[in-house]
Amino acid sequence: MKTVVIGGGAAGIFAAIHCKALLLERSSHLLTKVRISGGGRCNVTTSTFDPKLLIQNYPRGGRELLGPFHHFGPQDTVRWFESRGVPLKTESDGRIFPQSNNSQTIIDCLMREASNLEIRLQQKIGAIRKVENHFEIEVNDEILCCDKLILATGSSKQGYAWAESLGHTIQSPVPSLFTFNVPDSPLKELSGIAVPDCKVLLPGTKFVQEGPVLITHFGFSGPAIIKLSAWAARYLFEKQYKAPLQIEWTPPFPKRLRRVLTEVIQNYQIDGKTTHKEEFVTCGGVTLKEVDFRNMGSRICPGLHFAGEILDIDGVTGGFNFQNAWTTAFLAAK
After folding, report:
1. If I label 211, which of 65, 144, 168, 306 is the partner at 20 to 30 A Cα–Cα?
2. What count of other Cβ atoms lies within 10 Å of the Cβ of residue 65?
3. Helix 320-333 × helix 10-19 angle, to 10°
4. What is the pLDDT of residue 276?
5. pTM greater than 0.90
6. Is 46 exposed, middle or buried (0-12, 13-18, 19+ CB in 10 A)?
């Protein structure tokens, strides 16, 4: 049986390692997102080990991931890397990084494990067809045949197009994990001030988060804002990123901020967003009801499997998106 994985990111490499597949990547580099994630440190997973708590960090896909996390969860990720000579550390906020503080450590580990695989870079991949009980893939003007196919193409438009051509429905992709532009904010002069425990919400909606808020020269950032953006990704897209924002500034806060605030609860107007380049997580992808989460297999096209961000799954920051990649890749491969 011949298996092909398309996509050389975290999910694609992890899947290929576990099923000894041929891996195709259109670019000249592997694991690009791993390299730059977490400010170059690579937040490989989270210390939220309980699956029931873990799934609460996924605005989309949490319910579907409950079963898969029992088969391969954060503790399995930790064991996998540490058993291969990569010591990890847990930071106070629950994020897990390599002790080296260098994403290259994670890349080197994955590439060692993949050293016996056939990996083809700079592959010009055209159409993918299901013909009877196998797939035909146009690669560099040739036809490659395989019995099983894993699509791990992230938020690539081409990946979505292949999934559609094989019968799947795509939930339209929109940005997730971004900060809020508030041009009329009276606090912009206080850029750089962080308040550790605030409540942020979009009035008239169910979207509310608590946590640190960072005042920036363009508006607001920080964990609470970025989490709010993830849960409200589709709502804010539909509103063209123009919506009221309410922040409850929880005392004590810096004296400079106290001088400007007249009330603890303040109302602002969002007018635009700024996306964190190193996060670039997408809300949207292959419709989840079309996928069997026991093995990440297509319910529509036998032999086709999915892993990672091509699915309509996205998590908040903190290692949750990488954990989705490791988990779905492991199950697709097995």
Report:
1. 65
2. 25
3. 30
4. 66
5. yes
6. buried
What is the extent of the structural domain holding 160? Answer: 3-173+283-333
CA angle centred on 264, ends 261 and 265, rounded to 5°: 110
Number of domains in the chain: 2
The model's pLDDT over 228-238, given as tens digits with 9 standing for 90+, comes to: 999 999 999 99
Domain shared by 232 and 268, yes or no: yes
Which residues lie closer than 8 Å to 34 by C-beta, 6 or more apart?
Answer: 9, 10, 42, 103, 106, 107, 110, 322
Asked whether residue 166 falls in the same domain as residue 310, the answer is yes
Q: Are 265 and 248 in contact (CB under 8 A)?
A: yes
Indicate if 206 and 289 belong to the same structural domain: no
What is the bridge-based pairing of β-strands 3-6 and 22-24?
parallel
pLDDT digits (tens, 9 = 90+) for 25-55: 999 999 999 999 888 999 999 999 999 999 9
Closest CA to 282 of 312, 326, 242: 312
Radius of gyration of the chain (CA): 21
State whether 136 and 98 are in the same domain.
yes
